[in-house]
Every structure is written in C-alpha cells, then in structure tokens.
Amino acid sequence: MAPVPISSIKVGHIDDVQELRKAKPSTIPERFVRDRTERPAQVATLSQSSDIPIIDFSKLSRGNKEISHMEILQLTAACEEWGFFQVINHGVDLNLLESIEKTAMDFFMLPLEEKQKYPMAPGTVQGYGQAFVFSDDQKLDWCNMFALGIEPQYIRDPKLWPKRPASFSETVEVYSKEVRKLCQNLLEYIAISLGLKGDVFENLFGVAVQAIRMNYYPPCSRPDLVLGMSPHSDGSALTVLQQGKGSSVGLQIFKDKKWVPVQPIHNALVINIGDSIEVLTNGKYKSVEHRAVTHNEKDRLSIVTFYAPSYDVEIGPMRELVDENNPCKYRRFNHGEYSKHYVTNKLQGKKTLDFAKTQSNISN
Fold first, then answer.
1. What are the pLDDT digits (tens) for 236-265?
2. Structural domains in the chain plus CATH codes
3. Which DSSP string corresponds to 221-277?
4. What is the pTM of this model?
5. Is the bond leading into 165 cis (omega within 30 degrees of zero)?
6. Fe2OG dioxygenase domain: from which residue to which, for each copy (predicted)?
C-alpha cells in the first residue's frame, strides 16, 4: 500500500502526529525536523536514578517531628538544587492514577474526526491539537495534546469537554480534586522549607488556577531528528506530572548544562517548580528548563496538572526573601498578564520569564 501523502494529513493547519505515524512516511516531514543545534543528542540513561530527588510525602504529613524535619531538609535541597523531584506515598489513590491513564489513552485512540470536535484554537491552550504554535514555519513537536481548564469554574469551556469516552468528565473531575489537594499540601511544606508560615501561598494565591493537559507521543522512526516537546519552564507555581505506565523514558531536565533523563518510579508523581514560585522566592527556588524526547518503538503518555495563583493576584518577590545579599530580581506584576504572555509566545527555554525580571537581571 502506497504511503499517504503527508500534505493530506492535517489538524487545521497543524500536522497530527498519530495520523503521520499511521501513514508510515518514508521520511520525517520537514516541519518536525529540528535544526542541528536543537536535536536531542544521545543521553546515556542514568543508572543511579537516586540522583533525581525522591520525597516521601507520608514522612512530611504523618511522620514524627524528627522524621518530618529530615524530609523537609530533603525537600529544601530538591527545590534549591534541582527544581524537580518525584513524590512517593503522595496520597492520590493508585486506582485513580490507572483510571486517568486509561481515560486519556482512550481519548487519544479515538478517530481523528472525533477528536477534531474539540479543536485548540490558535493562541489558546485548551482543546485538542498543539499549543504554542504561531507561524507556519515554526517547528512542531512530535506530540498531540488535549488540555482543559479546571479551576476556577469560569475558565472552563464546556464545549471542549469530550462526550467520549463516557467516563472522561467524571474521571478528570475526581482526579483533579485529588491533585489539587496534593498541590496545596506540597506548597504548605515548601513554605515551611523556606522558613515561612505554612499557609502563606494559600493566602496569597486566592482561588488558584488549575489546568490539566494530556500529552501523547507516538513512536517516531527518527527520534534523533525531532523533539516530543520543546525546551521550556512552566508558567505555573507547581506542576504535577504523571508518566504513563510502560511509556518510554521521555522527560529530560536541563541541569549543569546537560540534559538529564528522569527515570519514572512506579506510582510516583513528578513535581517541578514553576516560574511563579521562582518569582515569589526571589530566585531561591528556580523553575527548570525541561523537554520531552521520543522513542522509535514505544509511545509515551503523560498527564500534567498546572497549579498557579489566581489571575487577578499581583505577585513579586516575598519581602522575607529579599535582603542585601539577595536583592530583588523580579518586578511586581499581575499574574493574569504573565499567564497571557506565557501562552501567546512559543516555547523557548526560560525566555518567557524575562517578562518578570528587573532590567538588570534580564540577561541572567
């Protein structure tokens, strides 16, 4: 059977990578082929996965004072030195983790015409397709996305909530409530790790913004030429990532000027610091550039929750974290303005955060 012409496979103006995979093209379309400087170099798999910090949430929340203090110190080091950690014993029901994975995969396996009923409009980040695409010559990620606003209610677009699979809405609602509680609890311990009152972030955030995004990365015959997702930091306060069981290792973080793969731990969730926490902590805890790579045989599913301050909140460095030795690195700004800036620019490492920096710190 002759390969399907690449030009005939589109989601609006954007190529759909699942349909490309089915077509078995003889070459990777130029739209996906990265410039040489952007291509994923071969990264040796870390044998010592303990290099990525692991936080035992049960020790934070239920341990005695001594155990809790030791885990707080681990959390401090994870946030200061990595900006990423995996959390175990997190309290989110393991059956729920399985349910959201199955629900997400069932959605991505629907026929293209069904998924196209929920299109991601250009310049937005809700619906099905690819976000952060603003020109016809921009390189595309080897990924299909489906994203929804969760909280507060007014950010939801009911037209984008799928009718299939039948359990989709209920599963996303229950899962999102559980992950929201985890974010609130983690921020309490992050505040304590900074020497602040545990409720400081909850009081500052107002009704926190929460969104969910499901990412599906089909296998790619030339993973050395493409990226699953372009390098970026997250505009959130915290990001919670669930890596699908059996998925290929795809997440990489940029540390010490090299890309480090994050080995999934069974039933763990990956947490990373977002731009908002970097600003609020005056750079003590930094958001970290990360990306996704693909595999030539295995697919990959990830489910990402973004948790951030209310859009009407003004944020800037907390005064407790500014002094002569650590002068103010960021200006005060409306978080909604930053969110709009973030979603209307393509992913370019940490460049978006220049929006928040004082003039003298923009090159840093």
1. 999 999 998 877 789 999 998 889 899 888
2. 95-361 (2.60.120.330)
3. S-TTT--SEEEE--SSSEEEEEEPTTPPP-EEEEETTEEEE----TT-EEEEE-HHH
4. 0.91
5. yes
6. 207-309
